[in-house]
Specification:
191 residues; alpha/beta; 45% helix; globular
């Protein structure tokens, strides 16, 4: 709790919104998860909620995991947003955009810090869906969306140029990315 209060203070949360004052998020199992209040636009939070619900409905209709959107959970998005804000992260590379749900969580934090986010998606239809969602979120000017193979983008990324890499692509390909991931991350960096 002490670390959380410190992190919230660094991220610019008003003192009345730290500590035990939290938002409750309903999860599919009807368990209530406590989150710190986020200094995010209410309309953006509503969009994220709608996208999360749409993603869960979409994924329930598809047995093949590669056809699913596989969005992260809202609690994970909120934590990533908090970490990026807290540490003043200005340069993020996301590998695996899908429909842009996680991209919005990351992009909002990077925008608040005056930075940029590059996101890579190999599926042109998913990238188009992400572009529409980023426009709805008002983040198109902050996010560079690449329709490409992650390995190609990694190979072209300058050394020591990225603060955080959010690795959310096909896991079987991760070992091949390792050398470039280490090369592009600034010290200290977060993968």
């Amino acid at each position: 709790l002490i670390w959380l209060n410190f992190a919230l203070a660094l991220a610019g949360y008003p003192s009345g919104q730290r500590g035990l004052t939290v938002n409750q998020v309903a999860t599919p199992s009807k368990v209530r998860i406590l989150l710190p209040p986020l200094p995010m636009d209410r309309d953006l939070l509503h969009l994220l909620d709608a996208l999360h619900r749409e993603g869960r409905a979409h994924d329930a209709e598809h047995e093949d995991r590669r056809q699913r959107l596989r969005n992260l959970e809202p609690e994970t998005g909120a934590l990533l947003n908090l970490l990026l804000r807290t540490y003043g992260v200005r340069s993020v590379l996301e590998l695996g955009t899908s429909n842009g749900y996680s991209t919005i969580w990351l992009g909002e934090a990077v925008a608040a810090n005056g930075g940029r986010l590059s996101s890579v998606e190999r599926d042109p239809e998913r990238a188009a869906q992400a572009a529409r969602n980023l426009a709805r979120a008002g983040l198109s000017e902050v996010v560079d969306l690449h329709v490409s193979d992650a390995a190609l983008v990694l190979a072209q990324t300058p050394a020591d140029s990225i603060d955080v890499v959010f690795l959310d692509a096909e896991r079987a390909e991760y070992p091949a990315y390792w050398d470039d991931l280490v090369r592009i991350l600034r010290r200290p960096g977060l993968l």
